[in-house]
Amino acid sequence: xxxxxxxxxxxxxxxxxxSAAVVWLIGxxxxxxxxxxxxxxxxxxxxxxxxxxxxxxxxxxxxxxxYGHTTGDVAAxxxxxxxxxxxxxxxxxxxxxxxxxxxxxxxxxxxxxxSRMRTDIRNPRTVQPGTxxxxxxxxDDTEPSDxxxxxxxxxxxxxxxxxxxRLQLGLLSIDEADALLTVSLxxxxxxxARVHGIRPTGMVRHGHVEVELIxxxxxxxxxxxxxxxxxxxxxxxxxxxxxxxxxxxxSTSDPRWVVxxxxx
Amino acid sequence: xxxxxxxxxxxEFLLDSRARYRRQMSVRLRxxxxxxxxxxxxxxxxxxxxxxxxxxxxxxxxxxxxxxAPLMADEDPGARPRPSTALEVxxxxxxxxxxxxxxxxxxxxxxxxxxxxxxxxxxxxxxxLDHPASSPCPVSPGMLIGFRRHPTxxxxxxxxxxxxxxxxxxxxTGRDVRPxxxxxxxxxxxxxxxxxxxxxxxTTITVRTDDGTxxxxxxxxxxxxxxxxQPGRQVQVVRHHGPGHxxxxxxxxxxxxxxxxxxxxxxxxxxxxxxxxxxxxxxxEREVPRQLS
Lengths: 264, 293
Description:
The complex is a heterodimer.
Chain A: H1 3-34, H2 45-55, H3 61-65, E1 80-93, E2 101-108, E3 114-120, E4 132-135, H4 155-168, H5 174-185, E5 191-205, E6 208-217, E7 220-228, H6 230-239, E8 241-247, E9 256-259
Antiparallel strand pairs in A: 1-2, 1-4, 2-3, 5-6, 5-8, 6-7, 8-9
Helix pairs in contact in A: 2-6
Chain B: H1 12-49, H2 59-68, E1 87-97, E2 107-116, E3 125-132, E4 144-149, E5 157-160, H3 165-173, E6 183-197, E7 200-209, E8 214-221, E9 234-239, E10 250-252
Antiparallel strand pairs in B: 1-2, 1-4, 2-3, 4-5, 6-7, 6-9, 7-8, 9-10
Helix pairs in contact in B: 1-2
């Protein structure tokens, strides 16, 4: 046997051995699991995952949909907010890149038109109907595509865009937006507050239901109002907490707190 | 308010499934070990006694690879039988796609989270249904959906996704909804009363029919349901007649499967016409939705 045969056989054996090791590892994990008592799924786990998504907002589009792709250069293109109206696809991962999962987003664009686009979505929880996504309106003669999503916008740009959008929709008041921006600019994080009660007020705006929450803060139990999407109401109810920031007002006897929105 | 997340002990169905899986894995592991021993023995014998080329070394990991492949199979508990418990209704509070990136036969499996009528956070339940991956999930938060409880698992239910809006309304009100045509109306006002039953609030929705008549629907609702009743939205109502009903009262038919509660401030969208044969909820090719543990 010459040297090239020796090297070739060792390399091939090494590669197949590594593959076999992986398969055996998975097999042993499965075998071990087969000897444990089965766990019963608790549906509230879903709301914990949604809370984790919520706690990390606002963030770039790439972070939000699950894979952290951000180009970093803020493009000198106009930006607007598109809204997810439907999500489909996502049946399987890409054959060439197993970590890529193509979903089909249907978006309502800022001009009222609707567009369907295929894009890589790892976390379908974050693009459910109603979700706001930064978007660069395409030029008149071009069809919108997933390249027009605001991949290039960093967290600050996304925050500012969504803050203005929520203000325009009446989902935030000026002083609430000020309080959120102040905390964000100071690099602080909102405080976690326990929720004692949830009561709808009867106001509904843009798919959001206004609710009055009684939250536990350093000022004691205080009422606050916020607009939440239906699934966010359930998330608050089952987790029993929200993130909130204090509104700086002259009055110390009547402290006000604002619920940290889901932003996207 | 935070939830105690003890989902309870596994029932016989889950334990039987796990026992079956354990037996399969034990047999597969024994076979795999025997195959590997044979592979190693034959290869070493070949190398030493028959002076095979070193290329034969690859036989050992190749046999190990093939032998271990069956150990990668996940447990498949199969489908639970449809329970014969009472038909109930609940409000959808969450929709979780569990098969994202891994759909079987291009059918997504979604876990539908429900709060049963009158229930609170501790009563959260879930069931499963399938829909084609090529179309959006037909169920969205705020909808009502029928279910039957699996008697041996606390949080798992069998979804009865094919119920008509009238049947759902009947389950909600506890009364049969008289056959007859529903009428289209526009939501004029939404008010929340002071009374609540746990997390369900007494809600009065005033609607105006196409002929200008104002009707009111009073019911206990979850906040999650209310996004559909923004003033200006179109709904289908059944007018109440006869004794026991106040004048000008009605019941709003629960939304059907393709009526998503999207924001409609600028241009209220016409809701899908309600078909008494049932809501247009996608069904899997199987006759019934997949029911998992």
